[in-house]
Write a structure and sequence with these properties.
Blueprint lengths: L74 H9 L20 H9 L5 H13 L5 H12 L6 H14 L3 H8 L6 H13 L3 H13 L6 H13 L5 H13 L6 H13 L3 H13 L6 H13 L3 H13 L6 H14 L2 H13 L6 H13 L3 H13 L6 H13 L6 H10 L6 H13 L3 H13 L6 H13 L3 H13 L6 H13 L3 H13 L6 H13 L3 H13 L6 H13 L3 H13 L6 H13 L3 H13 L6 H13 L6 H10 L6 H19 L1
Helix pairs in contact: 3-5, 4-5, 5-6, 5-7, 6-7, 7-8, 7-9, 8-9, 9-11, 11-12, 11-13, 12-13, 13-14, 13-15, 14-15, 15-16, 15-17, 16-17, 17-18, 17-19, 19-20, 19-21, 21-22, 21-23, 22-23, 23-24, 23-25, 24-25, 25-26, 25-27, 27-28, 27-29, 29-30, 29-31, 30-31, 31-32, 31-33, 32-33, 33-34, 33-35
């Protein structure tokens, strides 16, 4: 930069320098033209940082040919800004206007930088914002430039600052800053990105609506930010994502590779695998290569849905595309095999993984232990634990919680203590999840003292119970008929500062319903709504069940109607609760009417519902109609189970058609159903009656 001589006072009569208070006694020399690389050594903390830019470092809008071949030293300016007081603080909300009077130092600085082109200011600001230094100096620079009319692309400067504030989680300051300029597409995009990055989706979506109302079309980057935020916060929902895609189509936005990847991942993580596959095919059809992470997410979603054949196809596609599957990809496929119980495939994929030079990680071993535990191969699971130790992979609490859950599901709750001992021998401390599984294990087998002791031990170790812990403990006491203790725990939960969730209220509503405390049920519903918790399908199903079991059928039907009016679709489980309630009272006509309403609502009858309908006819001594339900099952590709045949045998015994029972039992065997104790008991009862009849 050319050196400017100190201007004489008479040259600028509009500035009264004699009246200025010079706070800075040293005179800052104008920036020197640098032949060699120079560096600015001024930040707000005084640490060395390079801010001098060579002539070819411009912002995205810079034109190298329009700028003289020179370097600018911004050190004096940055020193001035960092040592200034609160004149340029980010809390200033009034728009900076050109000054009417200046200190000599500031005036000389402004004049010395008058020739700096806008692209260099943009480049300098980006460098400052990308540093770990506080944002204050960068903000002061923008304010200073605006005060002296040194750079006219303020829109870009403000968008750079908004982006930096969003990255620093200073969303409020970003909005304050945006009010200093009329919002343009550039600043809108920066604000939307800042909101999405800070997971404030409501503000981001509102800004997109305002942007559209102002006549500015949104771009694909904004939609990518929104979808990424939804995915990151696990708030992704298939219907919501479908709505976003409809908006993208409405805005006529061309889908690029990044957005297609985000949409595919979003649908995969929401559990809508079919749509995820559709967008994956769309990307490939457009000649775009999906990211490895996208393919891994789709493989995981397919595995979770038990669609391992398709997961294998995507996995092979990944390899054929020249991408090397890494541990995450192998784990995604392994998870699918574990989910479907394909132990041989699980063992094979781990072997293949090791053969290709990838060592199993903690997640791999956890899944393999899960597979062996589900198959009842406890010794194999222990061998995997030893392999982990040999490979210097330390098992975590989750691994042991899976082993414990497998014992629980197989009824071997006594081995809980053995798992705890093995865990401590490996130097692993139980975490909240492990204790929750342990409490659930004891609760399922009515070992309430052990469940409470585990709860106390957990708190003694400094692990605070979460809502899952409390729900598990309350529920196991309710199921064991200890309603008073369950209510005590419910009160203790609230006193501890842990807020009940919808599941907690559902458990307590069921408890009060079993005790026929109808006023307390209404009080709970009111309290639940006052806390902003809306009844869900489980709430209404519970209400229908407790009202039906107590013969309060009008209340049950009213709940059904209220649920429909709230926009919730009744489930097959809810109708089963109602039909089963009618069945237990022998009200077969009401049961068949509920069945007709269910089919009219578009709910597909489940095996559970049809078994309840058979029971309703059986209790009402209408065996012919009971067998017509069996025929309906066969015609609609629903395979009868042991409960179906047992209920039919019970219906025949009720109408004293003992001679037909053996034929039903034989049909059950031929269909591949294994008779249980109750089925064998029905057959013995029928044979005993037949023998008694023959003797008499």
């Amino acid at each position: 930069m050319l050196l400017l001589p100190s201007p004489p006072p008479t040259r600028f009569p509009s500035y009264n320098f004699s009246s200025l208070v010079l706070r800075y006694h040293r005179i800052i020399q104008p920036p020197l033209l640098a032949a060699t690389t120079s560096s600015a050594i001024a930040t707000t903390s005084g640490e060395a940082t390079q801010y001098s830019k060579p002539q070819n470092e411009y912002g995205s809008s810079g034109d190298p040919n329009s700028v003289p071949n020179r370097r600018y030293d911004f050190t004096p300016l940055l020193r001035f800004l960092s040592s200034a007081e609160s004149d340029y603080d980010s809390d200033v909300e009034v728009e900076s206007a050109p000054p009417t009077s200046l200190e000599l130092t500031e005036f000389q600085l402004a004049e010395s930088y008058r020739a700096v082109p806008a692209p260099l200011w943009h480049s300098l600001l980006k460098s400052m914002c990308s540093d770990s230094a506080p944002i204050g100096t960068a903000y002061s620079l923008v304010t200073w430039l605006q005060r002296h009319n040194l750079c006219f692309s303020y829109e870009l400067l403000y968008s750079i600052l908004i982006h930096a504030l969003g990255r620093s989680e200073k969303l409020y300051e970003a909005f304050l800053l945006s009010q200093r300029q009329t919002l343009t597409p550039l600043t809108y995009n920066a604000l939307i990105g800042a909101c999405a990055r800070n997971d404030d989706l409501e503000k981001a979506l509102n800004l997109m609506s305002r942007m559209r109302a102002d006549g500015y079309p949104s771009d694909f980057v904004n939609y990518s930010f929104i979808i990424q935020s939804l995915t990151r916060t696990n708030r992704i929902d298939s219907s919501m994502l479908q709505k976003i895609y409809e908006e993208i189509e409405s805005d006529k936005i061309e889908l690029d590779g990044h957005l297609l990847n985000d949409i595919t991942v979003g649908f995969a993580k929401s559990g809508d695998v079919n749509r995820a596959l559709y967008f994956l095919a769309m990307a490939q059809g457009n000649g775009l290569s999906p990211k490895t992470a996208t393919l891994v997410t789709v493989i995981t979603a397919l595995g979770n849905a038990g669609r391992t054949t398709e997961a294998e196809a995507i996995f092979e596609e990944l390899k054929e595309g020249g991408l090397t599957p890494r541990t995450k990809a192998y784990n995604a496929l392994l998870k699918g095999y574990v989910k479907t119980g394909s132990l041989k495939d699980a063992e094979f994929i781990v072997s293949e993984m090791e053969k290709n030079g990838f060592s199993p990680d903690e997640h791999t071993y956890s899944l393999l232990i899960d597979a062996y535990a589900n198959a009842g191969r406890w010794e194999s699971a222990r061998i995997v634990l030893k392999e982990m130790e040999a490979s210097d992979v330390r098992p975590n609490s989750y691994v042991f919680s899976r082993i414990l859950a497998s014992y629980r599901d197989r009824g071997e709750w006594q081995k809980s203590f053995q798992v705890l001992r093995e865990m401590k021998n490996c130097g692993v401390s139980p975490d909240r999840h492990f204790y929750n599984v342990m409490i659930d294990t004891f609760g399922k087998y009515n070992c309430l003292d052990h469940a409470l002791a585990t709860f106390d031990r957990m708190r003694m170790e400094g692990i605070q119970p979460d809502v899952v812990t409390w729900n598990t403990l309350i529920d196991c006491h309710c199921k064991s008929g200890h309603h008073n203790k369950a209510e005590e725990l419910f009160e203790a939960m609230q006193e501890s500062g842990c807020s009940p969730c919808t599941t907690t209220y559902n458990i307590m509503i069921n408890s009060f319903g079993e005790q026929e405390r109808w006023e307390d049920v209404k009080t709970l519903l009111g309290k639940m709504k006052s806390q902003g918790l809306l009844p869900n399908v489980v709430t209404y199903t519970t209400l229908v069940d407790i009202y039906g079991q107590s013969g309060r059928f009008n209340d049950a039907i009213e709940c059904l109607e209220v649920m429909k009016s709230a926009g919730l679709k009744p489930s097959s489980t809810m109708y089963n609760a109602l039909i089963n309630a009618y069945a237990q009272r022998g009200l077969s006509e009401q049961a068949i009417n509920a069945f007709r309403v269910m089919t009219a609502d578009g709910v597909k009858p489940s095996l559970l519902v049809l078994n309840s309908l058979i029971n309703a006819f059986g209790e009402d001594r209408r065996d012919a109609e009971a067998f017509s339900v069996l025929q309906y099952m066969k015609e609609n590709d629903l395979k009868p189970d042991v409960v179906t045949y047992t209920t039919l045998m019970k219906a025949l015994i009720r109408v004293e058609k003992f001679d037909k029972v053996p034929a039903v039992y034989e049909e059950m065997l031929l269909s591949g159903c294994t008779p249980d104790r109750k089925a064998r008991g029905m057959l013995r009862s029928a044979l005993r009656y037949m023998k008694h009849t023959l003797k008499s």
